[in-house]
Write a structure and sequence with these properties.
heterodimer; A: mainly alpha; Four Helix Bundle (Hemerythrin (Met), subunit A); 6 helices; 72% helix; 2% strand; extended; B: mainly alpha; Helix Hairpins; 3 helices; 75% helix
Chain lengths: 175, 102
Amino acid sequence: MNSDLIVFIVLAIVSIATAMGMVFSRNAVYSALFLVLNFVTVAVFYLLLGAPFIAMSQITVYGGAIMVLFLFVIMLLGAESLAPSKALPWQRPLAFTLALVLVVESVYLIVSRAQPNLGITAPDASLNTMDSLRQMAMELFSKYLLPFEVTSILLLVAMVGAIVLTKQEKNGRES
Amino acid sequence: MNTVPVDYYVILSAVLFTIGAMGVLIRRNPLIIFMSIELMLNAANLVFVAYASVFQSFSGQIFVFFVIAVAAAEVAVGLALIVQIFKAKKNINVDELNSLKG
C-alpha cells in the first residue's frame, strides 16, 4: 500500500461523504457548507495530480466566490428549509433506483475497459513549480487565445445579464 | 513507486456525478439543485485533470479552467433568476413553478 493510495482513499471517502451530506441535509446552509468541504477535497485531488493552478482556481472561484454567492442568496431568500411537498411520492425511490443503475453501469464499463498500464505516478517536483505554471500560461495565451477571449466576453454578458435581471423596475417603465 | 491507477479517479468521478444527478432528481429546492449541478461539473473536471496528468498535457487543465469560468457565469445568472422568481411568486419550490408567466 503506497502513501499516495492511502491519501487518495481517505480523500475519496471524505469527498463522497460530503457529497451525500450536501444532497441529504435538511437545511440548505448545511448543504452549502458540505459542498465547500467537497470542493476543498477536490482541490487537494488536483494538487495530487500535479495541477496547482487549477487547485488554487478551484478554491478561489468555487470555494470562495460561488459558494459565498450561494450562501448569500439562501439567507436573502430565507430558503434554508422549504416545506416538504407531497407531490410525486414515487419520485424518491425511483430516483434512488435510477442512480444505482447509473453508478453500477458506469463502474462496470470503466472496470471492464480498464487499461492496467495507465497509472498516475506522484507528480515530480518540477510540476509544482513556477515553471509548469509558465508553460501552461504560454499554451493558454497562444494555442487557446481565442477561447480565452470568448470566456471574457461570456463573463461580461453574464454580469450584465445578472444586473439586468435583478434591477428594480421603475413604476412607469413597465410595458 | 507511488502510483494511483487512473481508473480510481474515474470511478470516484462517476460516483460523485451520480450523487449530483440524484440530488437533481430528489430535491425540491432549486438552490440545492444548482449545487448538485456544480457537483456534477466538478466530477467532470476531476476526470479532465486526471487524464491531463496521465498524458502529461496541459490541454486538460486549460479546459478545466474554462469550465470553472463558465460555471461562475452560469451561477451568477441562475441565482439572479431564482431571486427574481422568489420576488414574483414568494416561493421557490420547484413543484409550484409550473408557469412561465410571472
